[in-house]
Amino acid sequence: MNWLPMLLDATESTAANYFPIGIQIIFAVGFVAFMIALSAWVGPKRKTSDKLESFTSGISTHGDARHPMAIKYFLVAILFVLFDVEVIFFYPYAVNFKSLGWGGFEAVLLFVAFFLVGFFYIIKKGALTWED
Amino acid sequence: MNAIILSALLGVVMMFASVFTENKIAIRNIAIFGLLILLASNLLNIYTPYSFNVDLHNMLRFDSFGLFFNSIAIVSTLLYVILSGSDIVKVGNYPAEYFALIFFVLCGVTILSSYNSLLMLFLGVEIMSIPLYILTGSDKKNLKSNEASLKYFLMGAFSTGIMLMGIALLYGASGNFNLEMIREKTSIAEFGILAPLGLLLIFISLAFKVSAAPFHFWTPDVYDGAPSVFTSFMATIVKTAGFIAFVKLFSLRMADLGPSYAIILPVIIIATLLVGNITAVFQQSVKRMLAYSSIAQAGFMLFALYTSNDLSTEGILLYAAAYSIATIGIFGILIKMKDYTFDGYNGLAKKQPLVAATNTVFLLSLAGIPLTAGFFAKYYMLASALKSNGSALWLVIVAVLFAAVSVYYYFRVIQAMYFKDGDAETTEIDGTFKFVLVVLALLIILIGINPSILLRWYYF
């Protein structure tokens, strides 16, 4: 049992210190491989061609990925992501609501103001008008 | 602080200018008015106590060096917009947005001139670069413009990644983003390779931004592909801002941290001078020649990093002003030419004597001929090298030899304008344009006769 104190003593930086990490890697890889093999061996199997298709919300795929699309889809998608992600900033603010006090409130108001200015701009520029 | 806040707000104002008016001349005038306000606010910040008071947590530090550079950058932009504003609105369908992006770039420039924390360095570089990627690709129907934009974006993204890695390593070594604290807390003996490696990565990334060899490969393609008006902006204000950030990083004697910059910098300086000057000789297009010449000029500005003394801080400010004014003038004239090759300039002196004369002054200044601002800019750089280190004499001699090479390709334009017969075709040139050209040329000659005209504002 002379390897146990070695595990606990991390001050020395020798190759032997990585021994526990090696054990863990072997265990992790072995466990995953074992579970996959086990489920393949024990589990039920029903092979159909539908299962080999990529899953697209229940709609059957058509064409390939190079299919030309109207630029409007990308514009709406990008704008959605932009505003969606900005909402994430409210979560840390909500958690720290009390400790940040009025200073934090002013900062968030400024953030929302810029946010709305941007929104007003894209509306005015007609980025969201679908019909030409 | 004034300039940082106001430039961002003015960018938003320009965005909304497009919502309320379609008039291109009105939009240009709003931009000029905005730049005047920006200049006034920056001057207030320097010479009076009137400035926004924000708790900065020591992330930005406003000293006379950075604030004075802000003035240079804003005045250069103002001259640029007055000179080429009518060409900016012609690039595409979004004239107000171009000015908005220029204001956002200025916001990045003003952050870069006053950062005191590596985070602000990163933010400044990004705020400065991202609008430029858009401006490069603003000529949407032009394949070369699109290519340049994509190239610039991808290369810029990689260089930013390298910078972030460097910042992370420096943070790992010191536990701090603050420049002085990093300087204090890191010593090579204690942290081994971490801090020098981090500094080297930031060095590489900034060398990319100022297009120093061997990180210059994007420059000719991007400068050539971008609409000429925006090339003018990129080659002047943005490039000098990159150098200011570079000098600020090295002025804290950060270089002592790293691998021997006394060896790395001369190699990079000579490589930059060599690549810029020798390749510029073989160009057929004046625009592409100017792209290489901007690499060559970067070689001279790199001397400010090599030396880091009071002469070099004065010198880099003088260089920024001299180089920006001359290049803005040359590009202003280039935009008016129908043919960008050297032959396109044939016989310009007969058709437009005033334009040809001012163009000659700008070219002489870039070549560093005495009585122009470019001479004193180069003089300060080389003098600072000799002052700091006697063994730098060989480097100075090499630089002077390359300056002599540069005379060849600058004078080719002068030769074409004055001594060759031809029919130089230009688009229409109005009185305002000529007036601003004369103002630019006068500025160059005035600074060339007495550089303290400019520098006395530095020591207020």
Please summarize what this structure is:
The complex is a heterodimer of chains A (about 130) and B (about 450). With about 130 residues, chain A is mainly α.
SSE string of chain A, helices as H and strands as E? HHHHH
Number of beta strands of chain B:
0
Point out poorly predicted stretches of chain A: none
Q: Mind describing the biggest β-sheet of chain A? A: none
Order of helices and strands of chain B: HHHHHHHHHHHHHHHHHHHHH
Number of helices of chain A: 5
Give the proportion of residues in helices of chain B: over 70%
Describe the global form of chain A: flat
The overall pLDDT of chain B, averaged over residues, is 90
Low-pLDDT ranges of chain B: none
The greatest interface here is: A-B, 4 and 5 residues
Report the count of strand segments of chain A: 0
Q: How does this structure look, described?
A:
The complex is a heterodimer of chains A (132) and B (460). Chain A contains 5 helices and no strands. Chain A has 132 residues and is mainly α. Chain A folds into 2 domains: 4-45; 64-124. Chain A is flat, with a radius of gyration of 27 Å. The mean pLDDT of chain A is 83. Chain B has a domain at 260-460. The two termini of chain B are 18 Å apart. At the A-B interface, helix 5 of A face helix 1 of B.
Comma- or semicolon-separated keywords:
heterodimer; A: 132 residues; mainly alpha; 2 domains; 5 helices; 61% helix; B: 460 residues; 76% helix
